[in-house]
From TrEMBL:
It is found in: Endomembrane system. It catalyses: cholesterol(in) = cholesterol(out). One of its GO terms (biological process) is cholesterol transport. One of its GO terms (cellular component) is membrane. It is a multi-pass membrane protein. Residues 652-815 form the SSD domain. Belongs to the patched family. Pfam families: NPC1_MLD, NPC1_N, Sterol-sensing. InterPro entries: HMGCR/SNAP/NPC1-like_SSD, NPC1-like, NPC1_MLD, NPC1_N, SSD. The keyword DNA damage does not apply. One of its GO terms (molecular function) is sterol binding. Keywords: Cholesterol metabolism, Disulfide bond, Glycoprotein, Lipid metabolism, Lipid transport, Membrane, Signal, Steroid metabolism, Sterol metabolism, Transmembrane, Transmembrane helix, Transport. This is SSD domain-containing protein.
Amino acid sequence: MRRLQILSVFSLSNLNSPVAGVHYLHSSPEMNLSLRILTAVAYVQVLLLISISNADSLTPNATPREKHGENYCAMYDICGRRSDGKVVNCPFGSPSVKPDDLLSSKIQSLCPTISGNICCTEAQFDTLRSQVQQAIPFLVGCPACLRNFLNLFCELSCSPNQSQFINVTSISQMKNNLTVGGIDYYITDTFGEGLFDSCKDVKFGTMNSRAIEFVGNGATNFKEWFAFIGRKAGLQIPGSPYAINFRSDADVSVGMKPMNVTTYSCGDTSLGCSCGDCPSSPVCSSSAPQLLHEKGSCSVRIGALEARCIEVSVAMVYILLASLFFWWGLKHKRKERNSTLGTKSFMNVAKGGPAQPVLGRKNENIPMQMLEDIPQITNGVQLSVVQGYMVKYFRSYGTWVARNPIFVLSSSLAVVAFLGFGLVRFTVETRPEKLWVGHGSRAAEEKQYFDSHLAPFYRIEQLLLATKPQGAHMKPPTIVTEENIKLLFEIQKKVDGIRANYTGSLISLTDICMKPLGEACATQSILQYYKMDPKNYDDFGGVDHAEYCFQHYTSDENCMSAFKGPLEPSTALGGFSGNNYSEASAFIITYPVNNAVDKESNETKKAVAWEKAFIQLVEDELLPMVESKNLTLSYSSESSIEEELKRESSADAITIVISYLVMFAYISLALGDTPRFTSFYISSKVLLGLSGVTLVMLSVIASVGFFSAIGVKSTLIIMEVIPFLVLAVGVDNMCILVHAVKRQQVELPLEVRIGNALAEVGPSITLASLSEVLAFSVGSFIPMPACRVFSMFAALAILLDFLLQVTAFVALIVFDFLRAEDQRIDCFPCIRTSGSLGDTDQGNDQQKYGLLTRYMKEVHAPILGVWWVKLLVISVFGALTMASIALCTRIQPGLEQKIVLPRDSYLQGYFNNVSEYLRIGPPLYFVVKNYNYSSESGQTNQLCSINHCDSNSLLNEISKASLVPTSSYIAKPAASWLDDFLVWVSPEAFGCCRKFTNETYCPPDDQPPCCSTSDGSCSVNGVCSDCTTCFRHSDLQNDRPTTAQFKEKLPWFLAALPSADCAKGGRGAYTNSVELNGFEDGVIPASSFRTYHTPLNKQADFVNSMRAAREFSSRVSNSLKIEVFPYSVFYMFFEQYLDIWKTALISLAIAAGAVFVVCLVITCSIWSSGIIVLVLVMILVDLLGVMAVLNIQLNAVSVVNLVMSVGISVEFCVHITHAFLVSSGDRDQRTKESLATMGASVFSGITITKLVGVIVLCFSRSEIFVVYYFQMYLALVLLGFLHGLIFLPVVLSMFGPPSRRVIVERKDDNKSYASPSL
């Protein structure tokens, strides 16, 4: 008798997620495809065909007799066989018969509920046994389910009371024999519910799904399950050869009653179902799954407005602080009006009174003008030791440079040229894993461990073909049409025809693709339902066949793929809801390609060559073909991101050049005097500006050359951003230096003017530059390589730029002023004109009090000096800061892949479509290190999830976590090689682990050599007839293999092919899940258990899923004392975001602390240093608030920008604060003087220069430039301007430090001296 043909179905575990974790960031995943193989049981409806009645006493022409009662059969023996080999029963009743002792013992071993007489022959029982062995591997993990399932068919096949619940309802004829055409099978709802409840949660690990999906077609209740079992199957289709109607309304009047054998609950401890297979068990329900990483958001409802708790708290704190501040302000104002003693006392001195209290004493309330009107009093500046030394040094140094400009300029350029020679070793790093993954990263180490001990992730080449919506706000139409499927065949033909040239050989897809078990590629496409052959389209039924396979991809042989595995529709379709696959609006075609650990191997280079040809084919041929059909096509290859990053290097060249030209034009105008037609060609500073820009470029070249010489690779960001950044920073100092020289009295010699100018602004320039260098240096501690290297290059470039400014640029200033004094034309210094110096320089007063300076002194400062304006400014800026604190909590970590790519990259559309269409998450592996499988260790039960496993085992905990996917981000229970191995060796799975008499491995009967591959015939009388099961129960220890048995049989299991007779074979499914190197010592170095994350659409989902997986692994590792870690291909790129806030806050704190220390060392004033840092912190907090409003994510790029903001913001504060510190008068007068002195320079030399360069970046083609450089830098410049020229002056006027000016009595015999001007 020919066995029923059932389907071998395969699951490519990793292919279930076509892009699972592959391009979620920017990365190149490398992991081999793991083949998952299982057998979908052809449901043992065939067992319903194994009893006919009274064959011994009835002839073929006899008429059936209906009788229902105890010890009477409704069917007995076999009357026929269909053309597809399925046996059918004779519709004749007879009394039950007593079996011999051997048959009785066989029946008891499989059907313990049947004793005494039976209604089956020995041949029928052998058929029953051979067929149920196909179902046992699915259910043996839960003995209660298996027992109930077997009872359903044991009672039907061999029960002595068969006629009480079986009624033949129709009769057919086959070869002159009457056969059963249909039956009613009466079963109580109690039994049906008990059966279903015991089996509904049983896992089938190989497919990461439930066994009911395969033995019950995904039934949700017992009635659906019975309806599926009872369907009459056509020829060559699995199922019953006649209809079976399951009913519960038996007619008791004729002696019938429904079958109601006792069912076993899966929670029955005596049958040992695991928590993974029976979560409703009392043992399991007592240990409910923990909610991992679930953080509720606190909110407060105020009327119709709902606000977050942090926002309400901040608002309350602000109201309290603002109220206290206004109360203090009003009180202080009243007190100030009554306090005029200081001024009156000084007026007595002015009228000739004694000046006894003033000698060597500070008095910041004395106006500067009054000091000038008193001949006996002069004033000086009491500087700190460091500042005093810097003033003396810069004055003498400036004088020396003015006398030796050629030597200074040439020596500076020589040093730069020497450093620039390092460019001969210049290289650019474009590999994503080298740019975005830090050295020593835990995720990188885990990836390396996974790749080296198990297998690297496979390469992904993908096409997404989608329909377009027919109108606004309309749902796109289905893509599952005949025209689109035929188009897909055309596309596939062209892809198969790709021949890429690699070192003279032609590479095709079949040369590099994954081939799990045969010669066919494991392509994930709905064309697999047609075996990838267009000829099968019409033969199989066209579109209807595809829609049929969407529901029966595991149970119909015609739906099997060309690579002999099932194709889950969710891996090849997109844009559907639930399981409505026919509504899908996208085809997802995935080509998994072999990967290698070594990126320089021939295998990898062959794949890269084919990928380039693949992308070229899509752009040249496939895109026009698809667009002509009014469809969209997005595409990607494994090497796409790296190639697009390389292309980005030239994408913004024009933008950068324009930025430099605009900056240069502004510098030329800003450095020159007010243009006058008669002298602009002399007073302009175009040549000086060009020279300054050149020095900036030289500083960048020297920085890149130095690091290249020591072997540090550059990045695209360094090449494009640092020149602009250093220019924006360097221009400030250029303007300040030139304006300081122009403020000096023209009557003084040039070397004195240069010396005085450097003495005036040198300390503040040094302070600002050192702060910037330190701030950038802090960024070098950020773990992300791209940002760390960027910070290193930038810090050195800014330091070199500062050194060039105080050397080469000062020398250039000397040359330029000599040119102007000698009446030589700018840009053409060899041409001299006639005229006088007065035409071009009308004295110090006009230069000092230009339009902007007059505005600062006469308009801006007086307005800020009004008391109520001060209160308003403090309140507004305080409100802005408090609001930004509340908004900071809305900033999400991450870096969208689309951001780092050019705007016109084809990957932009691809990533959009992936988010829109994909319905499955990336694979997640839980890797166990050093699993001790010896009998003494007990670790086997700590890991497995079948019967007798610990309730808190790893796999049971994973199963529990999958019940709360919103917090655990685990979608399914894990596929377990260990569970399947334990089932494979168990005596119940008698078709799996078998051995010949010589103790060698014997395959299942439906595999060679037991089954002939030439004619497909299988015979129990063949070469495998002498095979026996590997073990009996007595051979095992507590149903577990001993250490020696485990060691011997594990390689058998991993080499065993799955088939109909044993679906648990591990070959393909678990080939790369276990490392066998060294396992003979009783320890498996590495093994993995695969599951899936839930669909991850946002960057926060990736971060939270990784955090949840790590928290879960840590908890399980601590509980089991076994080292377990989670691995998914995207972890390496998202690890940085787990602690990105901590990294950001520590970096900013260090940067701000460095600025404070530098300010304190130079000024020796805690007061002024504290005010500078306060303003810096407010700028940073406000910048974070802007990031929240603009939805700018927190990542290494934005953290570096924030750290840079500390250094850049110093320039908006330090110059005005320093000017305030060394001026005299009361706080209002000193504020006015500092604004008049440095306000114009801060506005024109710092604010405008940065705005000019930043605005150009908005035209960049790279989104990362627009978001992280244009938007963030623009916000920084505006915030720095507002805080530096509005908030800081108000704070200084109210809470500023005492003046460093001191009043001294001038002796008559002493000569007057010029006070240092700072």
